[in-house]
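subagent[fold] <- orchestrator: predict structure for attached chain, return tokens only, no commentary.
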Amino acid sequence: MAETARKRIYCFDLLKIISIFTVFMHHIMMDMYVIHPMHDLKVLENIIIRPNMNLGMIACGLFVLISGATISLSKREESLSSFYKRRLMRVLIPFYISYTIYFIIKAITFKTIHMFGGIAKWRFIYTIIGLDEYLHANGIPTFTLGIGEWFLGCIILCYLLYPILKLAHKKNSIITFIIMTLYFLFINFRYGSFNFVIPSHMNFFCQIYNFYLGIVLIDERALSKMKKWLCIIAIPVVAFFYFYTTYIPIPDNIKTTIVIVAIFVIFYNLENAISSVSWFRRFVIYFNKISLEIFLVHHFVIYQVDYMLNYKKTSGIETFLIVILDLVIIIALAIVVEKLSSMAYRFVDQSKTKRIK
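subagent[fold] -> orchestrator:
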């Protein structure tokens, strides 16, 4: 199983595709139906939001879990400072580019650059470190444009804790698992007593457990026990939480975590089938290359398109065409951001090489 842990796992890329598309459809439903009633998307809402499962929450939890797993796959030997620099550059450079693009779009749209309502200038530091929208969701005024939403700040904080979690797991995996699980249960069952402003599924203090589970599940010891018969349990678990219509009175985050672990088991056991199709491998590799960029730009594209349509009522076919238009613009813009980011990475690397010389 050591070889499995070193090679690329294509089912993770597929899960990222599914997760991002689910989040995209969730935001389409929210903006075109809940916030601005442009079209009746009640059917889509009923598909996404179930009594015991919210597919948007599942998608975000999966993305966090897969992030923990994929970062653990790296066998690269590097210092702590090098690790943080590499991970943060990969996240922050596309974020800065996306932020700049959307700021220009908004400035042109509203014919002004004054769009933040007198926020103290020093708070722009929150944007520089990529936490502006996450802190905004916590009730702290920032210069956010909504880029990356709460998720970007949450995953950055997870990256910061990764070396500690990885070391603890390596030193004593059982004790670490017990402590982390007890912590997760405690914070979710007692969430209301902490007076958090941010919803629990968006809270780093809750999502860190899903990130940690990625580290646990990708461990060679866990992978060696992930037999195909586990799907016999995992598939009914996912089906139960999706189709059971009576609300189960336990915290939603706990139900979400149970489901995403079951989904992980199912997809990991499909890895051989997924990786055996060469054209599909190329597709998921390329998509993974722009997955962060898609996530960064997708929401403001939805907002901007709907705004430019003046939130007018739309027919079924018009709504479908708007969704297709959104997808085309999102992918095109993601490719642009990725290309610009790659140029920035090369510039940084060249500057570093010159300093060394």
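orchestrator: received. Logging for downstream: The chain has 16 helices and two strands. The radius of gyration is 21 Å.
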